[in-house]
Write a structure and sequence with these properties.
The structure holds two protein chains of two kinds. Chain A is α/β, with parallel strands linked by helices. Chain A has ten helices and 18 strands. Chain A starts with 5 loop residues before the first helix and ends in a 14-residue tail after the last helix. Chain B has three helices and six strands; from the N terminus they run βββαβββαα. The longest helix of chain B is centred in the last third of the chain and has 13 residues. Classes of the chains: A alpha/beta, B alpha+beta.
Chain lengths: 417, 118
């Protein structure tokens, strides 16, 4: 693989950009691999990359039924933060945030990580108490998070309406300055390129239709639309379809698949300096480097695999956006889409071993999986290589729903899931 | 937005009037203190999350207020039938099932769009 650099750009500029090579290869599958990862989103591709880089396992295939990064990796609002309440959550999301900070250099790929700050608006006394509790918990744990008065919030985001007569008055905000955004496609492409360079096979347009198991119950490989492919270990990282894939091995996981929608506006000149989220009125918004306002809506209430959702969910979010930022009332929305999120009962992810030997699961990231991409991938690689979870992910087991040791972020999340 | 038939009001009403209430036909154990942790996890947390035909409960919360059961296709989101609470799981009529599959194929899922591209 040729490195990307300023010299590479200069060299290619001299010869009409004819020397760029494909970023990753698309090989035919071998008859068997040491590790198969189901799902070529950010988490799956990243896990393959870290397996190759940190654990010396390179005989890996990442199998994807659609196209690379075409699921939730390409459908989210790219928000990155680590200001969660519980230690189990702070561990993984902060691990992830630290990896984000060096990811572009590590992958030699510009992931456009932009620590522009994530601000959470407080509208009432309950919000204020809850956010201050988060801030204190975060700071005690060494994670940055600070309280802003309404005037300070307005100084940070000038288009914010903090007047007393506003429909949703603001009595303060929590700000994590290291939070921000990254380019979603670049994360998938960067991991794919770096993994492919280390010998990982990325097999797209190949649907896993079954998981074959041996006489002792251990995994032997996967049945796919391109035939049987053997594997010593299988990692499932299939987001909204995780429960469908796990069912193939007879493992039930406590997941609900719900549509989650997002939308972008027409491109505007730079006007919005950070990410703003409001839990109480359910709105979150940022501006992409292309200039589009990126707006996230809520989940639909019912289980669905349709990758679409109700219009009332979007209008509810836009109502709130227009009240918080009256300046955006006449902005036209350009595109809207839905992704299928996999939600657990406690709204915390599941990453760990399963009752089936050789089968590992990474799912349940629900509505907040993008920010976790590098951290989750890194810890998932550790899990697959060592067959036991990393210290930072030890609390995310599937077993916690039996023991009752839940990580109850449901009430602590930034937006109402 | 979904259009839902309430079997009590016998009317098609908008989704705004309804609240989804989880998988249907899950019986609470008679003596919940006596069951094991595994059985409790199964009863309390594990759900089928089907891709395709699913049976679920809805509540007409801004109407008659009553719970009822529905059979729905989770790929096309179309309702195949709704029936009153307390009735056993109702088989979905074949014609309804075919109609749902036909609708599934007209929905732009990745299988459709990618299938064409392939």
């Amino acid at each position: 693989m040729r490195k990307y650099s300023v010299f590479a750009i200069a060299r290619e500029a001299m010869r009409a950009h004819k020397g760029w090579e494909a970023q990753w290869t698309s090989p035919e599958p071998r008859s068997s691999y040491d590790v198969i990862i189901v799902g070529a989103g950010g988490h799956g591709l990243g896990a393959a990359y870290y397996l190759a880089k940190e654990h010396g396992i390179t005989n890996i295939a990442v199998i994807e039924k659609g196209w690379l990064g075409g699921g939730n990796t390409g459908r989210n609002t790219t928000i990155i933060r680590s200001n969660y309440l519980y230690e189990e959550s702070m561990d993984i999301y902060e691990h992830s945030l630290k990896l984000w900070e060096g990811l572009s250099q590590d992958l030699n790929y510009n992931t456009m990580y932009s620590p522009r700050g994530v601000m959470m608006l407080s509208h009432n006394v309950h919000d204020q108490q809850s956010f201050k509790r988060h801030i204190n918990a975060n700071r005690l744990y060494g994670i940055d998070n600070e309280w802003l008065s309404p005037e300070q919030a307005k100084a940070f985001v000038p288009v914010l309406d903090i007047s007393k007569t506003a429909r949703y008055p603001i009595n303060g905000a929590a700000l994590q300055r290291r939070g921000g955004t990254a380019r979603h496609d670049a994360v998938a492409w960067g991991y794919a390129r770096a993994a492919s360079d280390r010998g990982v096979h990325i097999i797209q347009n190949c649907e896993v239709t079954g998981i074959r198991r041996g006489p002792n119950g251990e995994v032997q490989g996967v049945e796919t639309s391109k035939g049987f492919i053997g594997a010593k270990k299988i990692g499932v990282s299939a987001a909204g379809h995780s429960s469908v894939v796990m069912e193939m091995a007879g493992v039930r996981v406590p997941l609900h698949s719900n549509p989650l929608q997002a939308l972008v506006s027409e491109p505007l000149k730079p006007i919005f300096p950070c990410v703003v989220m409001s839990n109480t009125v359910h709105a979150y918004i940022s501006q992409s480097d292309k200039g589009e306002l990126v707006i996230g809506a809520g989940t639909d209430q019912y289980n669905s695999y349709s990758q679409t959702g109700g219009l009332q969910i979007i209008t509810h979010t836009l109502d709130a956006i227009c009240e918080l930022f009256p300046i955006f009332r006449r902005v036209k929305m350009m595109r809207q889409w839905g992704g299928i999120t996999d939600n657990t009962p406690d709204r915390s992810p599941i990453q760990g071993v399963t009752p089936v030997p050789g089968l590992f699961v990474n799912c349940g990231w629900g509505t907040g999986g993008f920010k976790a991409t590098p951290g989750s991938a890194n810890l998932f690689a550790h899990l697959i290589a060592k067959s036991e979870p990393h210290r930072l992910a030890a609390g995310l087991t599937l077993d916690r729903f039996r023991t009752g040791r839940l990580i109850d972020e449901a009430a602590a999340a930034a937006v109402a899931h | 937005m979904l259009l839902i038939h309430c079997p009590y009001c016998e009317e098609d009403r908008s989704e705004l009037e309804f609240r989804w209430a989880g998988e249907a036909h899950i019986a609470r154990p008679e003596n919940i203190a006596a069951i094991s942790d595994e059985e409790f996890a199964e009863f309390f947390f594990l759900r089928n999350n089907e891709k395709g035909l699913t049976y679920e409960r809805w509540r007409h919360i801004h109407g008659c207020g009553r719970f009822f059961n529905a059979a729905r296709d989770t790929v096309s989101d179309s309702f195949l039938m709704t029936y009153k609470a307390g009735l056993p799981k109702q088989p979905v009529p074949v014609a309804e099932r075919f109609a749902a599959i036909a609708e599934e194929t007209s929905v732009e899922t990745w299988e459709q769009t990618e299938g064409d591209a392939r």
